[in-house]
Design a protein that fits this description.
Phosphoribosyl-aminoimidazole Synthetase, Chain A, domain 2, 7-stranded mixed sheet, 10 helices, 2 domains, alpha+beta, 60s Ribosomal Protein L30, Chain: A, binds cobalt (II) ion
Length: about 325
């Protein structure tokens, strides 16, 4: 998540800090790559079990986004010393159940006392080296597939301010808590090489990371981008997290919007996603097979743009 991490290089370090990838990848043997990532954050929902599940799904996603399978996980947690311990136990249970669903093992962790609760995982995964999916592997003409709708940051901001109720946004919460495992399996089986997941930098930020790492430009087709119901209207009323405005400011000189794309729609494309979907760069000859396998597996997806020569992002109506 840091843009300015000190970078190491080593002949066996396949992916380090330079390309803003989802995880580091180290070649253990010629047949086996080790994938490591960590992510944690403050609660975005009141239900402690659901928070734990969402935070774990989010952390596991960075292994899936790299084409890997999660193997082991460690809890990373902060919890107020005076708070009811049973709440904390519910958070950990939500995380543990999600790790189990992913087929990985929870092997320990570390907790500190802090006024603001935080939870997430450090996850270790593996992949065959040739299965690794990286930001730098997109190619000209690749179609961009997105597997979860946008708007999660905006809707959870509305949740905090009481403009929506948890009960009203069940599909959004369910999407956040769902693993990207099935989409990742299809991506690897079909031989996709470029991709990431959409998280804190918003769709624009993560598409840009892929474009920049691959020395390409991206084109996004706004009307084809899946958005959670209600999120556009909230964005129109300027209900959005500070991170959405920061992301959009960061992207100002890197993205050009068609005049039809309204200001609130631009903000939506910069909305930080918690546990967002996979963004796959699918070569055109593979697109039909990827579509068929995602449909067979019951994974929702949309084709939202393509990679082309140049630099930066163009957002067009369609
Ligand atoms: Co990621
Ligand atoms: Co990440």
């Amino acid at each position: 998540m840091l843009r300015d991490v000190p970078c190491f290089s080593h002949p066996r370090l396949l992916i380090g800090g330079e390309t803003n990838d989802d995880a580091g990848v180290f070649l253990l043997t010629d047949e086996l790559a080790l994938i490591q990532t960590v992510d944690f954050f403050t609660p975005m929902v009141d239900d402690p079990y659901l928070f734990g599940a969402i935070a774990a799904a989010n952390a596991l996603s960075d292994i899936y986004a790299m084409g890997g399978r999660p193997l082991t996980a460690l809890n990373v947690a902060a919890f107020p010393a005076e708070e009811d311990k049973s709440l904390f136990a519910r958070v950990l249970q939500g995380g543990a159940d999600k790790v189990r669903e992913a087929g990985a093992l929870l092997v320990g962790g570390h907790t500190i006392a802090d006024d603001e609760p935080k939870y997430g995982l450090a996850v270790t995964g593996t992949a065959r080296p040739e299965e690794i999916i990286a930001n730098a592997n997109a190619a000209e003409g690749d179609l961009l597939f997105l597997t979860k709708p946008l708007g999660v940051g905006i809707i959870t901001t509305a949740l905090k301010s009481g403009e929506v109720e948890e009960a009203d946004i069940a599909p959004v919460l369910q999407a956040m808590a769902s693993l990207n495992n099935t989409a990742a399996r299809v991506m690897v089986e079909c031989g996709v090489k470029g991709g990431t997941d959409v998280t804190g930098f918003g769709l624009l930020g993560h598409v840009y990371e892929v474009a920049a790492a691959s020395s390409l430009a991206a084109e996004l087709w706004y009307t084809l981008i899946p958005i959670h119901p209600g999120a556009e209207e909230l964005a129109r009323r300027k209900v959005a997290p500070g991170g959405a405005y920061r992301n959009l400011r960061y992207m100002r000189d890197k993205v050009s919007f068609a005049p039809q794309i309204a200001e609130h729609q631009r903000l939506l494309l910069a909305d930080p996603q918690t546990s967002g979907g996979l963004l796959m760069c699918v070569p055109k000859p593979l697109a039909g097979r990827v579509e068929g396998e995602l449909e067979n597996a019951g994974v929702d997806y949309a084709i939202i743009g393509k990679m082309r020569s140049g630099s930066g992002i163009d957002v067009l109506p369609a």
